[in-house]
Amino acid sequence: MRSLIKYSSIARQTVTAQTVSPAQCQEPDKCSEVFDTKCVIYSGDNLTCQDTTIVSKNDSVSTAIQSIVDYFCLNGGGGEGSQGVQGTQGTSGTIGVNGAQGAQGTQGLSGAFAAQGYTGAQGADGTQGAVGSQGVQGIAGEFAGQGTTGSQGAQGSVGPIGLTGAQGIEGSQGIQGTQGVQGSLGTQGSTGSQGTTGSTGPTGSTGLTGAQGATGSQGTQGTQGLIGAGIQGATGSIGLTGAQGSTGSQGITGSNGLNGAQGTVGSQGIQGTQGPAGSGSANAWIKGGNPGITGTDYFGATDSTLLPFIMNTEPFGYWNWTNSVVATGRQAGTSATATFAVFMGERAGNGSASSHSVGVGNASLDSATSDYAIAVGDNAAYNAQGRGLVALGAEAGSNNNADSVLALGRQAGIGNTLMNSTIINGNYLPQYADQTAAIAGISTGTGAITGNYYLYYNTTNFTIDAVLV
Hints:
This protein is mostly beta strands. Among the domains are: 4-146, no CATH class; 303-425; 431-468, no CATH class. It contains two helices and 17 strands. The chain has helices at residues 61-74, 435-441, and strands at residues 4-10, 15-20, 35-36, 47-49, 52-55, 307-311, 314-320, 325-328, 341-344, 357-360, 374-376, 389-392, 405-408, 421-424, 431-432, 453-458, 463-468. The longest helix has 14 residues, at 61-74. The two termini are 65 Å apart. The model is unreliable at 1-18, 77-81, 108-119, 140-147 and 225-234 (pLDDT under 50).
């Protein structure tokens, strides 16, 4: 059955029409102007929904209606959500006033049936028009992103149509009824169920471990520091030796005569008095410990002179009041010119000019000139330059020559010259093609511990990502 269109107004750029069927015509003459919907052209702007064009300019009414039906019925309105709530009934438009004398219709749109309509004779004032039909149900579906705007309240009923005279001119369009109240928003469609997780891809093979870098040559040994010498206290005088006891008389020699009786032993000589204490030794710290130590006793110096330590005749660090430097370890801080620094470990800070720095580990900050540095690990920040270096790990940041560098892991950033850098040794960061492969490779089955984030390098996205086990 073909669709029929009854025109309520015609203009060169805009067509406003309502769809009726012959059975709905109260008077057959009112449907005398009938057009095939394929021959009525929409000339407004393109109609879109969520960036999808549904009705295009110059589409026929038949094509436009079919496009709308396809979009909302066949495609589900582009959304996944459940059926939106029906918009509330738009209020009925007010009754249009009786139409005045209808003017002669304007020129019809160009087309197969766009011929000039006949001008009928003057019709009598029409009776009051019927109330407009109920508004169309609100559009269903996710298109209800703002629930569908409740269907536009039915257009204010057309002004009463004058009784048709003998082919009288149709009364002019009644004043349009007021806009119907907007329908309430449709409820949000429920979210679709979660798709199943794809199967885990195979774990890539582990790359070969790089060869061990050559060990740097041994630095030259610093000169022997002076050995402090305490003043030897004077030795006390030797006590007097007791007098020799008298010798018993010789027995008479006879043939195997009896031995003479033992002479009495002389009495013990009086012990000599204690020699005076050596100068400066009364308050010395002694190997076996000092008795009677109180809260006012201390070990140290009473002036700002360097306080060095010696072990096995070699320098073993010092406390420097003037430069605020503490060095502990064999040859630690030897020949250093740094200020406000702490060096711990054999040769730590040896020859260093790294002020405001901390070096922990053998040869850490050895020969370095990197101020505001933190180096932890053997040879960490060895011979390093550049301010603000943080090197954590054996040999990390050694020979660095750039400012503001963070080097993490053994041998990370050796010889780096790029400033403002964060460097992680590749041996500490496994590589995976994607998250699926990473989850397979980083699990409790491969030794990971639950509740921890494990970092890895994504070779597809060139990013550092993490897996929570």
